[in-house]
User: What shape does this take?
Amino acid sequence: MAFNIAIDGPAGAGKSTIAKKVAKELSYIYVDTGAMYRAMALFFLREGISPEDEAAVSGACSRITVTLSNENGEQQVFLNGENVNGQIRTEEVGNMASRTSIYPKVREKLTQLQRELARTTDLVMDGRDIGTCVLPEAQVKVYLTASVETRGKRRFLELQEKGADCELEQICRDIKARDEQDMNREISPLRQAEDAVLIDSSSMTPQEVTEEILRLVKGAN
Ligand code: DC
Assistant: This one.
Protein backbone atom coordinates (compact mmCIF):
# COMPACT_ATOMS: atom_id res chain seq x y z
CA MET A 1 0.00 0.00 0.00
CA ALA A 2 1.25 3.49 -0.83
CA PHE A 3 2.26 5.88 1.96
CA ASN A 4 0.12 9.02 1.98
CA ILE A 5 0.69 12.27 3.87
CA ALA A 6 -2.27 14.65 3.98
CA ILE A 7 -1.72 18.35 4.71
CA ASP A 8 -4.78 20.55 5.05
CA GLY A 9 -5.20 24.10 6.16
CA PRO A 10 -6.40 27.57 5.25
CA ALA A 11 -5.12 29.75 2.41
CA GLY A 12 -1.64 31.11 3.00
CA ALA A 13 -0.69 28.74 5.83
CA GLY A 14 2.38 27.62 3.87
CA LYS A 15 1.01 24.22 2.86
CA SER A 16 2.63 24.09 -0.57
CA THR A 17 6.05 25.25 0.67
CA ILE A 18 6.04 22.63 3.42
CA ALA A 19 4.48 19.84 1.36
CA LYS A 20 7.11 20.37 -1.34
CA LYS A 21 9.96 20.22 1.19
CA VAL A 22 8.59 17.08 2.86
CA ALA A 23 8.08 15.41 -0.53
CA LYS A 24 11.63 16.27 -1.56
CA GLU A 25 13.12 14.87 1.67
CA LEU A 26 11.25 11.58 1.22
CA SER A 27 11.46 11.42 -2.59
CA TYR A 28 7.67 11.32 -2.70
CA ILE A 29 5.43 13.01 -5.28
CA TYR A 30 3.85 16.30 -4.23
CA VAL A 31 0.22 16.82 -5.25
CA ASP A 32 -1.25 20.31 -4.96
CA THR A 33 -5.03 19.80 -5.11
CA GLY A 34 -5.75 23.53 -5.01
CA ALA A 35 -4.10 23.77 -8.43
CA MET A 36 -6.63 21.26 -9.74
CA TYR A 37 -9.57 23.35 -8.47
CA ARG A 38 -7.86 26.41 -9.96
CA ALA A 39 -7.52 24.71 -13.38
CA MET A 40 -11.26 24.00 -13.39
CA ALA A 41 -11.94 27.56 -12.28
CA LEU A 42 -9.88 28.85 -15.19
CA PHE A 43 -12.12 26.90 -17.56
CA PHE A 44 -15.28 28.40 -15.99
CA LEU A 45 -13.79 31.90 -16.25
CA ARG A 46 -12.83 31.44 -19.88
CA GLU A 47 -16.34 30.20 -20.66
CA GLY A 48 -17.88 33.17 -18.87
CA ILE A 49 -19.74 30.88 -16.46
CA SER A 50 -21.04 32.54 -13.29
CA PRO A 51 -19.90 30.88 -10.05
CA GLU A 52 -23.47 31.26 -8.81
CA ASP A 53 -24.87 29.16 -11.65
CA GLU A 54 -24.56 25.62 -10.27
CA ALA A 55 -26.25 24.02 -13.30
CA ALA A 56 -23.82 25.69 -15.72
CA VAL A 57 -20.77 24.86 -13.58
CA SER A 58 -21.89 21.24 -13.14
CA GLY A 59 -22.76 20.91 -16.84
CA ALA A 60 -19.33 22.18 -17.87
CA CYS A 61 -17.56 19.52 -15.76
CA SER A 62 -18.01 16.88 -18.44
CA ARG A 63 -16.06 19.08 -20.85
CA ILE A 64 -13.07 19.34 -18.52
CA THR A 65 -10.16 16.97 -18.14
CA VAL A 66 -7.55 17.82 -15.52
CA THR A 67 -4.26 15.92 -15.55
CA LEU A 68 -1.00 16.29 -13.66
CA SER A 69 2.61 15.62 -14.36
CA ASN A 70 5.72 16.08 -12.29
CA GLU A 71 8.75 17.80 -13.74
CA ASN A 72 11.82 18.04 -11.50
CA GLY A 73 9.64 17.99 -8.40
CA GLU A 74 7.36 20.74 -9.75
CA GLN A 75 3.75 19.81 -10.38
CA GLN A 76 2.40 20.76 -13.81
CA VAL A 77 -1.37 21.02 -14.27
CA PHE A 78 -3.03 20.45 -17.61
CA LEU A 79 -6.51 21.65 -18.55
CA ASN A 80 -7.77 19.66 -21.53
CA GLY A 81 -4.16 19.00 -22.50
CA GLU A 82 -2.96 22.61 -22.11
CA ASN A 83 -0.34 23.36 -19.44
CA VAL A 84 -2.02 26.11 -17.36
CA ASN A 85 0.51 26.34 -14.52
CA GLY A 86 1.37 29.93 -15.43
CA GLN A 87 -2.25 31.07 -15.47
CA ILE A 88 -3.81 29.80 -12.26
CA ARG A 89 -2.02 31.78 -9.55
CA THR A 90 -4.11 34.94 -9.73
CA GLU A 91 -6.53 36.16 -7.05
CA GLU A 92 -9.33 36.01 -9.65
CA VAL A 93 -8.73 32.31 -10.34
CA GLY A 94 -8.26 31.51 -6.62
CA ASN A 95 -11.52 33.19 -5.74
CA MET A 96 -13.35 31.41 -8.58
CA ALA A 97 -11.87 28.11 -7.38
CA SER A 98 -13.10 28.77 -3.84
CA ARG A 99 -16.59 29.66 -5.10
CA THR A 100 -17.00 26.73 -7.51
CA SER A 101 -15.43 24.10 -5.26
CA ILE A 102 -18.65 24.14 -3.22
CA TYR A 103 -20.46 22.10 -5.90
CA PRO A 104 -20.68 18.28 -5.69
CA LYS A 105 -19.95 17.75 -9.41
CA VAL A 106 -16.68 19.69 -9.16
CA ARG A 107 -15.59 17.94 -5.98
CA GLU A 108 -16.53 14.44 -7.20
CA LYS A 109 -14.48 14.84 -10.33
CA LEU A 110 -11.30 15.89 -8.55
CA THR A 111 -11.71 13.68 -5.49
CA GLN A 112 -11.82 10.63 -7.75
CA LEU A 113 -8.63 11.65 -9.53
CA GLN A 114 -6.86 12.41 -6.24
CA ARG A 115 -7.78 9.02 -4.73
CA GLU A 116 -6.62 7.23 -7.85
CA LEU A 117 -3.21 8.93 -7.60
CA ALA A 118 -2.84 8.16 -3.91
CA ARG A 119 -3.76 4.50 -4.27
CA THR A 120 -0.59 3.63 -6.13
CA THR A 121 1.88 6.40 -5.29
CA ASP A 122 3.73 7.51 -2.14
CA LEU A 123 2.79 11.16 -1.94
CA VAL A 124 2.27 14.35 0.01
CA MET A 125 -1.09 15.85 -0.91
CA ASP A 126 -2.20 19.28 0.25
CA GLY A 127 -5.61 20.92 0.16
CA ARG A 128 -8.66 21.53 2.33
CA ASP A 129 -10.34 18.11 2.65
CA ILE A 130 -7.55 15.60 2.14
CA GLY A 131 -7.45 14.20 5.70
CA THR A 132 -11.21 14.45 6.26
CA CYS A 133 -12.59 13.26 2.93
CA VAL A 134 -10.19 12.41 0.10
CA LEU A 135 -7.75 10.20 2.01
CA PRO A 136 -9.29 9.35 5.40
CA GLU A 137 -6.82 6.44 5.66
CA ALA A 138 -3.69 8.57 5.12
CA GLN A 139 -0.89 7.38 7.41
CA VAL A 140 0.03 10.94 8.44
CA LYS A 141 -2.40 13.85 8.66
CA VAL A 142 -1.45 17.42 9.43
CA TYR A 143 -3.62 20.49 9.87
CA LEU A 144 -1.31 23.40 9.15
CA THR A 145 -2.43 26.85 10.14
CA ALA A 146 -1.17 30.31 11.11
CA SER A 147 -2.80 33.52 12.27
CA VAL A 148 -4.51 35.72 9.68
CA GLU A 149 -1.88 38.41 10.34
CA THR A 150 1.01 36.01 9.71
CA ARG A 151 -0.58 34.60 6.57
CA GLY A 152 -1.37 38.10 5.31
CA LYS A 153 2.18 39.32 5.92
CA ARG A 154 3.71 36.31 4.14
CA ARG A 155 1.45 36.84 1.14
CA PHE A 156 2.21 40.58 1.15
CA LEU A 157 5.97 39.96 1.06
CA GLU A 158 5.57 37.36 -1.68
CA LEU A 159 3.58 39.80 -3.85
CA GLN A 160 5.97 42.67 -3.13
CA GLU A 161 8.86 40.49 -4.24
CA LYS A 162 7.06 39.93 -7.54
CA GLY A 163 6.75 43.71 -7.87
CA ALA A 164 2.97 43.71 -7.42
CA ASP A 165 1.17 46.75 -6.05
CA CYS A 166 -0.62 45.52 -2.92
CA GLU A 167 -1.95 46.54 0.45
CA LEU A 168 -1.55 44.42 3.60
CA GLU A 169 -5.01 45.24 4.97
CA GLN A 170 -6.72 44.24 1.74
CA ILE A 171 -4.78 40.96 1.64
CA CYS A 172 -5.86 40.16 5.22
CA ARG A 173 -9.48 40.92 4.30
CA ASP A 174 -9.23 38.58 1.27
CA ILE A 175 -7.73 35.83 3.44
CA LYS A 176 -10.56 36.15 5.99
CA ALA A 177 -13.17 36.00 3.21
CA ARG A 178 -11.54 32.88 1.75
CA ASP A 179 -11.44 31.20 5.21
CA GLU A 180 -15.10 32.00 5.66
CA GLN A 181 -15.98 30.50 2.26
CA ASP A 182 -13.84 27.36 2.61
CA MET A 183 -14.80 26.61 6.23
CA ASN A 184 -18.52 27.13 5.91
CA ARG A 185 -19.46 25.33 2.72
CA GLU A 186 -21.81 22.37 2.98
CA ILE A 187 -19.67 19.69 1.33
CA SER A 188 -16.20 18.84 2.65
CA PRO A 189 -15.62 22.11 4.49
CA LEU A 190 -12.12 22.91 5.65
CA ARG A 191 -11.69 21.53 9.16
CA GLN A 192 -9.12 19.61 11.14
CA ALA A 193 -9.62 15.83 10.94
CA GLU A 194 -9.98 14.25 14.37
CA ASP A 195 -6.76 12.30 13.91
CA ALA A 196 -4.79 15.15 12.32
CA VAL A 197 -1.88 16.79 14.14
CA LEU A 198 -2.31 20.56 14.48
CA ILE A 199 0.72 22.64 13.58
CA ASP A 200 0.52 26.40 14.00
CA SER A 201 3.36 27.81 11.92
CA SER A 202 2.92 31.44 13.05
CA SER A 203 6.24 31.46 14.85
CA MET A 204 7.98 28.56 13.13
CA THR A 205 10.35 28.50 10.17
CA PRO A 206 9.52 26.28 7.17
CA GLN A 207 12.46 24.08 8.19
CA GLU A 208 11.04 23.56 11.70
CA VAL A 209 7.60 22.66 10.33
CA THR A 210 9.16 20.25 7.83
CA GLU A 211 11.21 18.56 10.56
CA GLU A 212 8.13 18.13 12.74
CA ILE A 213 6.25 16.42 9.89
CA LEU A 214 9.24 14.18 9.12
CA ARG A 215 9.21 13.13 12.79
CA LEU A 216 5.52 12.20 12.45
CA VAL A 217 6.34 10.16 9.34
CA LYS A 218 9.11 8.31 11.19
CA GLY A 219 6.71 7.55 14.02
CA ALA A 220 4.11 6.16 11.61
CA ASN A 221 6.52 3.85 9.81
O1 DC B 1 -4.99 26.10 -1.99
P1 DC B 1 -5.48 27.05 -3.08
O2 DC B 1 -5.54 28.50 -2.64
O3 DC B 1 -4.73 26.88 -4.35
O4 DC B 1 -7.00 26.57 -3.36
C1 DC B 1 -7.90 27.33 -4.12
C2 DC B 1 -9.33 26.99 -3.71
O5 DC B 1 -9.66 25.64 -4.13
C3 DC B 1 -9.61 27.00 -2.23
O6 DC B 1 -9.98 28.31 -1.78
C4 DC B 1 -10.75 26.02 -2.06
C5 DC B 1 -10.53 25.03 -3.18
N1 DC B 1 -9.95 23.77 -2.72
C6 DC B 1 -10.81 22.83 -2.20
O7 DC B 1 -12.00 23.09 -2.10
N2 DC B 1 -10.34 21.62 -1.82
C7 DC B 1 -9.04 21.32 -1.91
N3 DC B 1 -8.62 20.10 -1.55
C8 DC B 1 -8.12 22.28 -2.41
C9 DC B 1 -8.61 23.51 -2.79
Notes: The two ends are 12 Å apart (CA to CA). The first strand starts at residue 4 and ends at 8.
